[in-house]
Description:
The chain has four domains: 2-82, no CATH class; 103-204, tt1808, chain A; 209-314, no CATH class; 324-664, Vaccinia Virus protein VP39 (Rossmann fold, 3-Layer(aba) Sandwich), CATH 3.40.50.150. Strand 9 (135-141), helix 5 and strand 10 (164-168) form a beta-alpha-beta unit. The strands form seven sheets. It has an eight-stranded mixed sheet, with helices on both faces. Strands 7-8-9-10-11-12 form a six-stranded mixed sheet, sandwiched between helices. A four-stranded antiparallel sheet has the order 3-4-5-6, with helices on one face. By secondary structure, the protein is α+β, with helices and mostly antiparallel strands. The protein contains 23 helices and 26 strands. The chain is globular and about 90 Å long.
Amino acid sequence: MVIGNQLNKIKIMPTKKQNKTIEVLEKIFRDTSLLYGLKEFDGIDFQKALNITEESKGRFYIKDIKSGKPKFIFDESDQKSRPEEIVRQLWLYKLNNFYKYPLDYIDTEKSIHFGREIHAKAADIIIYKKDKITPYVIIEVKSPTERKGIEQLKSYLSAEGAEIGLWSNGVKRIILYRPYPKEFDDTLPDLPFFEQTIDDLLDAKKTLFEYTTTKVDLKEIIKSMEELVLANAGVDVFTEVFKLIYAKLYDEKEARINRSDKEIYFRKYKDTSKTYTTINELFKEAMKRWPGIFNENEGIKLSAEHLSVIVGELEKARLFGSDLSIIDEAFEYLIPEVAKGKKGQYFTPRHVISMAVKMLNPKQNEYVIDPAAGSGGFLINAMYWIRDNYLNNSDESMSDYAKEHIWGLDFAEEISKVSRALMLIAGDGRSHMFKLNSLDPREWKGEDQELLEARSQLQKRLLLLDKPNDNNDNRETFHYFDFDVLLTNPPFAGEIKDNGILRQYFFGRKKGKLVNNIERHILFIERAIDMVRPGGRLALVLPQGVFNNTNMEYVREYLFDKARILAVVGLHNNTFKPHTGTKTSVLFLQKWGNEAGDSLKNYPIFMATSKNSGKDNSGNYIYKKDDNGNYVHDGKGRKTLDHDLDQIAEEFIKFAKTQKFNFWK
């Protein structure tokens, strides 16, 4: 039996006592993913660290590592538990066995004196200096579900005059540090080891391989950064965090490729001015390496003191090699509301993306585009699909493929930056990710260097028409392209009223007369079909009204005329919550011509409706549980989402093969 997953790699021998220990832990943590997600204790053998006994029937205790006394942790009869005690014992074990602090330098449940007032047993763990009298580190532990307690810890530190404070719920931690005589407004990236000074800790070189790859929770790190500094720093949080991520990406890439010792420069230094100078220089170098995202005169706007506080948090994350869904979730959290919702732009749930990519089955020689790329989810998933199914799981081959074949456009500044960063992490160097308005190619004609590059690259993908005059016109209008696969979730909200845009589209000229306005996603349908070659395949997320409203009949007629309807998959109302409850479907098409053949009047269409969205009515994700009520985890230790879209994709593949679709023969 394996408790958790690869996160903590704890193998449990199948003895009665050990099985009982795991059973008790799972009952204490209830949501077993909390137990599996105790990231601060990676590599610790829980069986060795935790001595759990059943003192009376159904009542369990744990032996305190420091005192040897039993501590209550769980009562089966009333389901009362103390998960924070498990976190405390794991920290005691880690302090003694990893950081090498002798137990006689450590105490637990110590009273804190606030003048004449005494808070009994307030400090969970105290580490003393060599005199074994002066408090050095105070540790406040919480249950994994708790997120508060930083201010309480600060009050303990001030009362006792300790230099370092550690807050931990087992899943995340924050290490406060007071460079005397300042207040506790600084942080450390880690605890110093026994016999190691803080100066030793900050002066020590660090290499790329010292940083975690699979456990990083970038969203939680950013939340900690906001709590410590960013919320009150007077800066645009998204922009400044993005600059730091950009600098860190550059540093990791340089360490991996160009530094023989793999040393990381993006870290906290003893001197705050050195921290600022080093990281600002990394940011400048990153802009030179990957231009076109920031103004060339940009710099980090955080003060040296503020930057020093949050770098200790961010340096713990390793971005290259990390799970992109974790990084994507962090960016979704960061994107301002104005960019996420006001124009109908929402991050498409990754299981919806996965279904669409799987059904269209892009191949290693095919060009893929998303004209409303957002954070690049469709494109990244397509890259991984091709890597796993056609490139023998080779990241290098995937990177080579992506540099040529993956294309994305988006007009939103913040989201365009996100997609480029994610592409960098994925490995393609963001070669063809452009900040452009897909609906209005007139805006592509400026003399800005980025526009010139985008225009030059896009002209390579123009569909060359038979008539020379038409061909020349197309090189100016960018009307028809020859992409093989298009996947997109266009913005739903808003109407287009600009006559200059409307006259470029069939839908903008009903019966030869220019309309006053039209919904944005309707123009995206026409634009998407024009962007793929004859025989090309499309997947579009669209509001349900397109499929059943009587006033949308002209759109449906247009679709039947231009493409074969491969499939329509109705998504559950909860799919895009909490952002919106709009009912949506995914439309799958193959443009008439070439391997799709000539237009047909009658043919079978695959229809499916998702009954299990993977979300509840509030938009929270729902995860699978086994017969015992425990969460099911995948090979990377992540909870498995409870949805039916994979099943729908499999049924479509069967249908596609019986219909002998060329892309699923």
